[in-house]
Design brief:
Elements lengths: L2 H28 L1 H8 L1 H4 L21 H17 L1 H12 L5 H39 L10 H18 L2 H10 L5 H5 L2 H15 L5 H29 L57
């Protein structure tokens, strides 16, 4: 396939993926209100958020267009999720012809694991927002009965969901290093101190919630996923027989043992000597011929 044909195929794949996202955007526009009601539940669960009529306090709008723009943002998020099977397939169909058969097999496995991990991170983030929001408002000077601005609140919740979902993909990186033979399970386990430190540092810096609840929960989840990934790496090494190589555990100046036992070699039959060959007569140099000065004429 020529370079122009690759560009044409890429254009076709991008067009089909765009159509899937637009179709998902239409579905997301319809489902934007239920999605908004789901995202505002942590706000409605705050102490004092329910008024005397039993309804949740309304959000604050700073511009007349904020509500419509927020609905379009939610519709786009939902459209990306709804159209994900189509645009992910188009991306995979463009990349797959350049991969080997075993690379395609592991790609299917990693994608199948990545989706539940991201969903688990999103659910955990939703629970963290419920607790973290209460901590933030109770620690502030306004209290929990303050009215929040709607666009900043939704951005806070969606950023938490996106952050937790992406962070939960961390075990896949470790498994890729192990399955490709870059790092063994023992080497991955030797990094546990560094991984725990980086997990807490990442959670403290990247978590939008400055409270200790969200940071600790995210860091603990990352550490747990790390040890689960190391356990899977040990099973993979055992299946492939890694660590049992012939030179494993032998120093550089130590002679490696041989598993091969040489077979004894029997003595061969005696060979009789052949008759000696008569030596050739020595070749003597020719006697120089005397020449006279008139021989050249």
């Amino acid at each position: 396939m020529s370079l122009i044909e690759h560009f044409r195929e890429l254009r076709t794949r991008l067009f089909r993926a765009s159509l899937a996202i637009v179709a998902g955007l239409i579905v997301g526009f319809v489902l934007s209100r239920p999605a908004f009601n789901l995202l505002k539940e942590p706000y409605c669960n705050l102490p004092g958020a329910i008024d005397a009529s039993g309804e949740c306090h309304k959000f604050l709008l700073l511009s007349p267009a904020d509500g419509f723009i927020l609905r379009l943002k939610l519709a786009l998020w939902i459209g990306l999720i709804v159209g994900a099977p189509v645009w992910l397939y188009q991306l995979w169909a463009f990349i797959a012809p350049g991969l080997h058969r075993h690379e395609r097999k592991w790609a299917y496995v990693f994608v199948a694991i990545a989706a539940p991990l991201f969903a688990g991170g999103a659910v955990l983030a939703y629970l963290v927002v419920d607790k973290g929001l209460t901590f933030l408002l109770e620690s502030g000077v306004t209290g929990t009965d303050s009215q929040l601005e709607v666009t900043r609140y939704i951005s806070f919740v969606t950023n938490m969901i996106l952050l937790f979902g992406v962070a939960f993909e961390f075990p896949l990186i470790l498994l890729m290093l192990n399955f490709t033979g870059v790092a063994s399970a023992r080497r991955l386990l030797s990094w546990w101190r560094v991984v725990i430190f980086i997990s807490f540092a990442f959670a403290a810096i990247a978590t939008p919630d400055p409270g200790p609840f969200g940071m600790t929960l995210l860091a603990a989840s990352l550490c747990l996923l790390y040890f689960v990934a190391v356990g899977v790496a040990f099973l993979n090494d055992k299946r492939r027989g890694r660590g049992k190589e012939i030179y494993a555990g032998i120093d550089d100046d130590e002679v490696s043992p041989l598993d091969l036992t040489p077979e004894p070699v029997e003595a061969g039959q005696q060979v009789e000597a052949a008759d000696p060959i008569d030596a050739p007569e020595p070749i003597t140099a020719p006697t120089p011929i005397e020449r006279r000065y008139d021989d050249m004429t």
